[in-house]
Amino acid sequence: MKAVRLTRTGGPEVLEVQEVPDPEPAEDLVIRTAAAAVNPVDLATRSGLIPTSLPAVLGWDLAGTVAHAPAGSGFRAGDRVLAMTAQLGTGVGSMAEYVSFDPKYVARVPQGMALTDAAALPLTGVTAVQLLRRTPDRRGKRILLIGAQGGVGAHLAARLLDEASARTDLLVRPADHSAWQERRAGCPADGAVLTDPAQVEAGAYDIVIDAGGAPGLFEAVRPRGAFLTITPFSAPDPAVRPDVAYTLIGVELDGDDLADVAETAARGDGPRQEATVLPFEEAAEAHRRLERGGFRGKLVLVP
Ligand SMILES: NC(=O)c1ccc[n+]([C@@H]2O[C@H](COP(=O)([O-])OP(=O)(O)OC[C@H]3O[C@@H](n4cnc5c(N)ncnc54)[C@H](OP(=O)(O)O)[C@@H]3O)[C@@H](O)[C@H]2O)c1
Questions:
Q1: Is residue 218 domain-resident?
Q2: What's the domain range around 52?
Q3: Do 198 and 171 meet the contact criterion of CB atoms below 8 Å apart?
């Protein structure tokens, strides 16, 4: 089968489509990949910023159809599914024609959802769900979400804007302002769309969620407030604000969270991000587009 593979780290040009052995059908479910999304972690793995053992097949997210279902797995051949693999921990990447999974980390793609759209959901959506589970009680609180326009940020924004009991301000790039003004019109949550960190009031927020990587905005948290981040490479030093509850999220595989993300998106309550579809052979181009910054939506590769 073919796979997007790294034999050395470096620029996008190190990505190659190569022939690799099919996974052995055994205890695990084997999924025939229809689409696999590109995430920033793939860029960090490819560049060597995050160490990995080589050669490696890249990718965390996929959607496809079940090719082999062991008895008792709860799935049947032909089922439409989405899944997330912790590529860094397991060495199993999603950018291959067939990928094997523990069935407990696989969820069904809701009826009517395109597999290319489903593939865009797992890592970003599950991270958002797990981050929100770790925020303190949000009722009556003032919240700042940094990077609402990003992959994880858009899932967080969709859920936070649905909560009338809190006031949520969004910090986005200037080019995203009008889209987010429109997006939040009519949403239950009160709040503003900000585009400049200088507009952010210091010490004013009960909860600051950083989905973009703006460590300087640690100062926006009030004393005894909470700061949650997902960006280990641009996170503030928690020792600077011992009065703040600091959380660095590390996403974990979870089939129930994945199902929640897929069902939320199917109801129309998800991130509303468009998928840009490219073939596996254009993996390097996908990495270049994401690396440049300013890309919106999700890049999805198809075999
Ligand atoms: N800890 C975990 O478990 C976990 C899980 C998932 C993702 N992550 C990490 O979290 C980060 C975001 O992931 P993602 O998939 O959402 O990436 P993404 O789709 O590239 O989104 C990041 C967004 O943040 C924006 N941004 C960056 N700095 C900003 C700032 N100072 N103010 C406002 N917006 C800012 C970017 O805008 P521009 O494009 O204009 O620069 C981009 O829209 C990545 O570093 C990723 O590796 C961590």
A1: yes
A2: 2-122+252-302
A3: no
Ligand 1 atom, smallest distance to 249 CA: 1
Q: Domain boundary residue among 208, 225, 248? A: 248
Does a structural domain hold residue 236? yes
Question: pLDDT by residue (tens digit) across 197-213?
Answer: 999 999 999 999 999 99
Which residue's CA is the closest to the ligand 1 atom numbered 35? Answer: 212
Q: Hey, what amino acid is at 112?
A: G
Read off the pLDDT of residues 67-107 as tens digits, 9 standing for 90 and up: 999 999 999 999 999 999 999 988 899 999 999 999 999 99
Total of domains in the chain: 2
Closest atom, ligand 1, to C-alpha of 127: 5
Hey, whose CA ends up nearest to atom 8 of ligand 1? Answer: 230
Cβ atoms of 41 and 88 closer than 8 Å: yes
Q: Do 98 and 30 touch, CB atoms closer than 8 A?
A: yes
Is residue 127 one of the residues assigned to a domain?
Answer: no
How far apart are alpha carbons 87 and 139 in whole angstroms?
36
Predicted confidence (pLDDT) per residue in 214-262, tens digit:
999 999 999 999 999 999 999 999 999 999 999 999 999 999 999 999 9
Q: For residues 107-128, b (16+ Cβ closer than 10 Å) or e, as one string? A: bbbbeebbbbbbbbbbbbbbbb
Residues 153 and 190 in one domain: yes
Residue type, 241: R
Residue 183 lies in a domain: yes
Please state whether the predicted TM-score (pTM) of the whole model is above 0.85. Answer: yes
Whose C-alpha lies nearest to ligand 1, atom 45? 231
Which own/partner contact pairs does 281-284 have at CB distance under 8 Å and 24+ positions apart?
281/17, 283/4, 283/12, 283/15, 283/17, 283/38, 283/58, 283/95, 284/12, 284/13, 284/15
